[in-house]
Amino acid sequence: MLKYVSTLFIVLGIIFIAFFGYQLFQSKQSQKDSLANAEELISSYKGKESNEEGQTFQVATNEAFATLEIPKLNKTLPIVEGTDADALDKGIGHLVDSVFPGEGEQIVLSGHRDTVFRNFAQIEIGDQFTVNMPYGSYTYEIRETEIVSEDDTSVIRNMGEEVLVVTTCYPFRYVGNAPERFVTYAYPVK
């Protein structure tokens, strides 16, 4: 009897490992596809005129439309419109109610700490982000960070100036649904 129970636990362990391995593979593949789509969109806009940077730019929900470069982490990640589960599986989510770079107000990006923002604990004040949009590239420098509770919505607000707000779950090594959010505030580099 003990032999059968041991075998059952081994088989269940293999099934769980295979399941989570498959999910990780799917997530990585989805992000890779989104990055390719975003880079293709960016290159297709090269040389096209746009009235007032970003003012005429529109994107569909769950569509990859830009990239976020994080030099400190040596990463280029896709930005997807929306912050629902589907969008966040594809890359970094852009909050639909926030503006795009070049529009002079708050831009909100969110991502999972265990996928796109793995190693985000290395980020410090003074590090830079570059958002590559179809209509241009925008570089921002982190000037402040904060940790807020998961239900704190005061982070999303009119700021009266262009600010790139990037959020992820915190603590970084937490297992399960993290109770807090790590928030960076990055300002345009002139």
From TrEMBL:
Pfam families xrefs: Sortase
Keyword Transmembrane helix: yes
Keywords, ordered alphabetically: Hydrolase, Membrane, Transmembrane, Transmembrane helix
Example GO molecular function: hydrolase activity
Active site per UniProt: H112 (proton donor/acceptor), C169 (acyl-thioester intermediate)
Tagged with keyword Transferase: no
Taxonomic path: Bacteria, Bacillati, Bacillota, Bacilli, Bacillales
Protein name, per record: Sortase
Residues passing through the membrane, by range: 6-25
Originating organism: Lederbergia lenta
InterPro entries: Sortase, Sortase_D, Sortase_D_1, Sortase_dom-sf
Highest taxon, organism lineage: Bacteria
